[in-house]
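ok trying this again, last paste got cut off
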Amino acid sequence: MVARLFEPIELRSLRLPNRIVVAPMTQFSADEGVADDWHLMHLGQYAASGAALTLTESCYVASNARNARSCLSLYSDEQEAAVGRIAQFFTDHSDGFFGVQLAHAGRKASAREPFKGGGYLSVEEGGYEAFAPSAVPLADDFPPPTAIPADAVADVIQHFVDGAKRAERAGAKAIELHGAHGYLIHQFLSPLTNRRNDEYGGDLANRMRFAIDVYEAVRAVWPDDLPIGIRVSATDWVDGGWSVDETVELAKALEALGCDYMHVSSGGRSPAQQITVGPGYQVPFAEAVKAAVDMPVIAVGQISDPQQAETILQNQQADMIALARPMIYDPRWVWHAAETLGEHVDYPRQYERGRPDRWGASGINAPGNLIPEK
């Protein structure tokens, strides 16, 4: 019996060879948004890992949408070409697929990188004006963002559309909209950051409108045979904030429009969040969404053990498993999971000799390794 973790799953025309996803991992290593050799190495190692789908880190759709200046972006020709280089590597060397996560930081824009101490990066220091649903500052050391005027919302949505077009030209096979972790789509969803009194604020339907409009606009230009998913924070972990029940309603609305999956995370919107962290701590949120919709659901969050991942799938709590930090720690996690669960996965031909069952072969008869006669 095949372990569920290694069963194929289909997302539109993509037949994923297993249910393992490499989740976005921000690197803060792009020069003005342009991917470089670090990104090719970082993402390329997962092309050779056996994972079914590898997603870029948050890829920002406009210059003033960036969380920090060193964040990967997709609003210029140079950035598009650099992402295309990575996509081509996947095409040439992977059985898995390469996807781009499109993002807008909203009020989290113009931040200093964590390794530089974090906090707000002023315009005088090279920062830029931040725009958000409402003028609610991120923290005490951040100025209030500029509330997006009603007549400018369509322009912001167009940035996502343009990013999707660039992702297609670059060769990406999937789009994930970043609606989690306190970024712009999440800011529209949460009543803690959305205090608008127009069609994009107020009741749940209005607060969901921006996410739905972005999805529909991107779906209209993205190839029909390729998937679009969304990552969400299922809860703000703050009283009066975005909730699991509201996440379920968003999932239902997006499923009705043809959304291909929901990637269920949590938190990231407020410093007041009270999170109880532990292995698989976000899985119950994925389970709640999965119980309400038929589209695939991705579970993520301190899932590191192959048997833990398999149990989540066997218990019908999710359809796919995403890993980030465990993949940093062990880029061969997929291979090791297969060994643990008694499954076979294909290695790149260059690495076939690395299989444990082939360690006993001396290899001395391989061309170039012949021992000369005495």
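PB: full thing came through this time. The domain at 4-358 is CATH 3.20.20.70 (TIM Barrel).
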